Amino acid sequence: MGAGQFATARRVTAAEMLPDIRRLTMKGLSPSMVSRLLGLCEVDVRSVTSLPGASALLPEPPKRIEFRPEDLPRYRRKKPPKVYTRVISPEWTVRPMPDEIRALIVSTCIEHGASSEDVMGKSPKRSVALVRHACFYRIYALRNEMGFRRFSTPQIGRWFQRDHSSVLSGIRNHAQACNGDA
């Protein structure tokens, strides 16, 4: 070869690759997958596999396997879903809190026409949440003889089974709704 001349590689034909095609199709690969693996055109692979003499060299395509239900392994049945029921008993009355706070919660619930079980529970309803926020605000507004706040937001949150940030948010929401005079 002289300068400026390039050696060109001879392209391998599908007929020359017939043993490899046979080996891969015996594994159950499709002609398109065989062509990708060997770097051939899919049309060439299909044409070689469809030649009259090639059928003796190539295996039959894998037959479809059918399963009957009794052949399949038996798996454990899933557990039935949990059924959540609402407990009507006033379990919040058992929580340790001062009696004046309990009375304040009940009086706020009576004023707003809500049940104390819903307010002290986990109900996400807007009407119940507004009453709960009013309770947060009234408890937080209580002061002792020295003028200091008597109860912290973490303490109020423990009584209502809420995080202190939820209590702070409820206090702010109630103060904003009432323009600071609740």
Describe the structure.
With 182 residues, the protein is mostly helical. 47% of the residues lie in helices and 0% in strands. The protein has helices at residues 18-26, 31-38, 42-49, 54-57, 99-112, 116-120, 126-141, 153-160, 164-177.
What labels describe this entry?
mainly alpha
Please write out the topology:
Layout: H1 18-26, H2 31-38, H3 42-49, H4 54-57, H5 99-112, H6 116-120, H7 126-141, H8 153-160, H9 164-177
Number of helices: 9
SS class: mainly alpha
Q: Please report the total strand number as a whole number.
A: 0
Low-pLDDT segments, ≥5 res: none
Structural Rg: 39 Å
Mean pLDDT: 75
Report how far the terminal alpha carbons are from each other.
99 Å
Q: How can the largest sheet be summarized?
A: none
Task: Please estimate the helix content.
Answer: 40-55%
Shape: rod-shaped
- The helix-strand sequence is HHHHHHHHH
The portion of residues forming beta strands comes to under 5%
